[in-house]
């Protein structure tokens, strides 16, 4: 007698060979329903019995059916994808933002496409065209500096756009930024609370808006605390450890020397620490130091570990995700929103 394969267990779909990837027609045929019914079940739509819906979903799962995302996006006029264009080639500021943004959007079943424009207008235009060709539902623009830029475009009419750690020179655009001035206030108020009376500020280039805002915060705390702005205690240079070393050497070669230094970023602060050790000063006993950015690579490797201002970039990214979802749903959002920073105290300024 000729042997035959045993019938599949009840409730299981037999292994069937397909000429290519399984289609919705295959799902409908095996589940013994119409293509329309299969479509409703797969898209959680229509009025179907739970038994029919479960049967279609089980068949689709067991034969490995995957819906055609492009076809679905055309059908519902939504791709459930978000485009991101950044010019932060190092990813120092963008990566935490994008990580949190992607996590928030994934909760809603949405995906992201990220492109790096590397400060090249032609490349940005190319990436924008490609993203628009993918029918993205919204666009997020990020950068390695929060200064104003020309609005990105041209865009598809009505496409939601949000700038994160970047801002458009357009009052109708939505920009999410860390509060640089508020962060500086936290840093200098912390030093003043330690009893420091001669607080210097070493920072980056003044054409950065963040530098100007942080200096404003520094000066406001000195004024409120009744502390002097000592001549030569404000030094502007570049964002580097080398500048931090050079600036610290200048500060301690004059007639008055500081008992605290607020640095515009962690690289400058780490360089300043190097110089202080070389000239025999103890941190924080002789000089307390606070940086800005709370960049783990810098603050934890410094000796001693650096107190720093955290810009809470992940919180900024998550808020960007919430805002994107609101804008896709039709809400109009605009203006510049500056979000609070946090002070992270470590050994460089502990009492």
Automatic annotation (TrEMBL):
GO molecular function: DNA-binding transcription factor activity; transcription cis-regulatory region binding
This protein's UniProt keywords: DNA-binding, Repressor, Transcription, Transcription regulation
SMART domains: HTH_LACI
Entries under Gene3D superfamilies matching the protein: 3.40.50.2300, lambda repressor-like DNA-binding domains
Classification via InterPro entries: HTH_LacI (IPR000843), LacI/GalR-like_sensor (IPR046335), Lambda_DNA-bd_dom_sf (IPR010982), Peripla_BP_I (IPR028082)
Highest taxon, organism lineage: Bacteria
PROSITE patterns per UniProt: HTH_LACI_1, HTH_LACI_2
One Pfam family of this chain: Peripla_BP_3
Residue ranges of domain HTH lacI-type in the record: 22-76
Protein name: LacI family transcriptional regulator
Origin species: Allomesorhizobium camelthorni
